Structure formats: C-alpha cells, structure tokens
Amino acid sequence: MVTFKADRPFLGVPLSIKAELKCCYTTTEQQINPTWFKSVRTGQSSPVAVNISENVTTRLDKADKELCYVLTFDSVQLNDTGMYQCVLNYSNHFSPGTYLQVYKRLKKTINLRESTKNKILTAEGVLLLLCVVLPSTTLLFKSKKLHELEKKKMKKEEENIYQGLNLDDCCTTYDQIERSQAHGPYQDVCNIIEEEEEFQLEKP
C-alpha cells in the first residue's frame, strides 16, 4: 500500500537557478519504481515523462518510514515551467504534484554605487530641510516687517495729532483762564464802583 504525502503546491525559481521538487510517500511494498511526469498545463490529459540528463537528476531520500523521490534541476530554463507529478510503479496513481514557475529577474536600469546613493540621500535631506526652513524664515521676516510698519504708522498718527494743535492759542487761552480765576472777583467789584462814580458825575 502506498500513501502520498502533501506536496508543495507551487515553486517559483529565477532563471538559471537550481531547483528541487519532492514527491514524498509511505509504503509497505518492498520495491517501488517512482517516475516523474510533467504537464505543460494543469489538467493535461497526457503528461510526459521527464527526461533525466546531466542537468536533470533524481535521487531517493529516506527519513524514518517516509521516502522522498527528489527531482533536481541544476539550472532551470523557461521551458521547464510546468506541473510535475510522480507515479509509483507506472500506475495511474499520481502524486498531488508541484507547479514549477521559472521566471526572469528584472534587470536594474540604473546601477548606482553606494557612494552615489549616499550623495543622493544627502541631497534629498538638504532639500527637505530647505523646504521646511525657508518658508518659516520668510514668514518670520514678513511678520517683523509688518510689525515695524505698524509702529511707524502709529508714530505718524501721533505726529499728525500734535501738528493739528496751535500751541500759541493754547497758551493764550490757558493764561486767560488763569488770570480770570486769580483776579475775577476783585476785578468785578472795582468795575462796579467805577461805574457808580461815573454815573454820579454825569448827574446835573
């Protein structure tokens, strides 16, 4: 009796890299002849036996009661992409299988040295700092200039107020008020007496 273990469902490998596929199982039979088959598309009716070569080899690994039939690609190619399953003793009982996907790595469009990368990062840091500092400095300068303009405006308004006053008139008015307050009552009595004398002299 043969019982298959769960296979790895998917394996992605870059082009020209080594890849290994495993078909693990337990069995009570004495002699097992595993064979690897490949299907270009999943569900293909007629899988094709894998050709063993210098680049493609097989081996049998044993671990306790479990056996693993390993298919090894020393350098995978794009046409190695497909669904791989193993069959024991040429029966119709296939393992769950593993889909092998071979892909090309993306090439670097720009090959930069570490020193160049560090310079670029430094330049980005300086630009970021300038973007933060310059607006703040400009705003502070504008605020200071606006404050100075307000002070000049207030000073000019005060000068205009003083210019509108006639200081000579103010002094004359002030002197008159002081004179009237100091001599007002006595001056009134004298004026009354003088008026009475003039009236008596005019009588026939």
Give structural notes:
This protein has helices spanning 114-163, 167-202; strands spanning 2-4, 10-14, 19-27, 34-39, 48-49, 56-63, 66-73, 82-88, 98-103. It is rod-shaped, with a radius of gyration of 56 Å. The longest helix has 50 residues, at 114-163. The chain is an alpha+beta fold and 204 residues long. The mean pLDDT is 79. The protein is built from two helices and nine strands. Strands 2-9-8-4-5 form a five-stranded mixed sheet, with no helix packed on it. The chain has a four-stranded antiparallel sheet with strand order 1-3-7-6, with no helix packed on it. The N and C termini lie far apart (174 Å). Residues 12-92 form the Ig-like domain. Keywords: Immunoglobulin domain. InterPro entries: Ig-like_dom, Ig-like_dom_sf, Ig-like_fold, Ig_sub, Ig_V-set. This is CD79a molecule, immunoglobulin-associated alpha.
CATH architecture of the largest domain: Sandwich
Sheet with the most strands: spatial strand order: 2-9-8-4-5
Order of helices and strands: EEEEEEEEEHH
Q: How would you state the average pLDDT, rounded?
A: 79
CATH third-level topology of the largest domain: Immunoglobulin-like
Helical residue percent band: 40-55%
Coarse shape: rod-shaped
Beta-strand share of residues: 25-35%
Main beta sheet = 5 strands, mixed
The structural class is alpha+beta
Count of discrete structural domains: 2
Number of helices: 2
Based on DSSP secondary structure assignment, what is the total number of beta strands?
9
Name of the level-1 CATH class of the largest domain: Mainly Beta
Unreliable runs? none
Q: CATH H level of the largest domain: which superfamily?
A: Immunoglobulins
Q: From the alpha-carbon coordinates, what is the Rg to the nearest angstrom?
A: 56 Å
Amino- and carboxy-terminal Cα gap: 174 Å
